[in-house]
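Board notes (copied after class):
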Amino acid sequence: VQLQASGGGLVQAGGSLRLSCAASGSIASIAAMGWYRQAPGKQRELVATITRDSSTRYADFVKGRFTISRDNAKNTVYLQMNSLKPEDTAVYYCNAGHFGYYSNSYVPGDPWGQGTLVTVSS
């Protein structure tokens, strides 16, 4: 399945954005999906995940501010971002993967779609 993220843009600190991740095929059977981000000069980091049964997890740095959700009918995953901070500035990517059976950590799949740039001004 191909993934395309959209919805990024320029927003002031404290503002909100909603990112969308549109899949080229059905996401209903995908075990888990995740949002990652990569800031300039930094490694890509996991932001949030959602499983097939809509269980969610968040990185500590976005807990209480970001919400991940999925609409299987639209083959789309969303990331609602509130109370944005300048340190949230990054290119955001969505991914289709799964959780490791033993590690219980998210394992990203391939391919990675094109990301969407979020810029938060202070």
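Comment from the instructor: The chain has a mean pLDDT of 95. The radius of gyration is 14 Å.
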